[in-house]
Amino acid sequence: MFLLSLQSRFYLGDVGNGAAMKLVVNMIMGSMMTSFAEGLLLSEKVGLDPSVVVEVISQGAISAPMFSLKGPAMVQSKYPTAFPLKHQQKDMRLALGLAESVSQSTPIAAAANELYKVAKSHGLSDSDFSAVIEALKVKLKD
Q: Cα–Cα distance between 107 and 31 in angstroms, integer?
């Protein structure tokens, strides 16, 4: 099975490994987004400007295109859909199932998945997966 990523090609071995790779990558992406959302909310609570936090992150060791692309809109509570939250949560659920099938512990992904489920329960299924920050805002009010 080959997986195309921009201009690179990767041989992944047996049939089904491409699907497994997609789930692993999306599990990491979903977990990263929930952590990023937590950081933005914490920065605001301690008096930092979340927009500046996005800029600092974009220039540091944890720079990732996802943070630079999604961060400014998240700070404004806008979530133009590129990857629907419902699909992110589905991939998280499937990745957790994959991990369970090989007895791999995934506590961080499991916690992130719960936040995506909360976001879905608040009507954000069709919003971009970055709208998961809204689930954290709800949890802060509880």
A: 10
Instruction: Please tell me which residue in 22, 86, 90, 117 is annotated as part of the active site.
Output: 22
Give the helix/strand (H/E) hosting 2: strand 2-5
**How many angstroms separate the CA atoms of 40 and 71, rounded?**
8
Residue 21, CA atoms < 13 Å, CB-side half-sphere: 15
Count the residues in the chain.
142
Q: Is 139 a catalytic residue?
A: no
SS3 content of the chain, % helix, strand, coil (to 5): 65, 5, 25
Contact 54, 75 (CB under 8 A): yes
Each residue's pLDDT tens digit, 66-93: 999 999 999 999 999 999 999 999 999 9
Question: 1 pLDDT exceeds 60?
Answer: no
Tokens 């369970």: give the residue.
100
Per-residue pLDDT of 38-68, as tens digits, reads 999 999 999 999 999 999 999 999 999 999 9
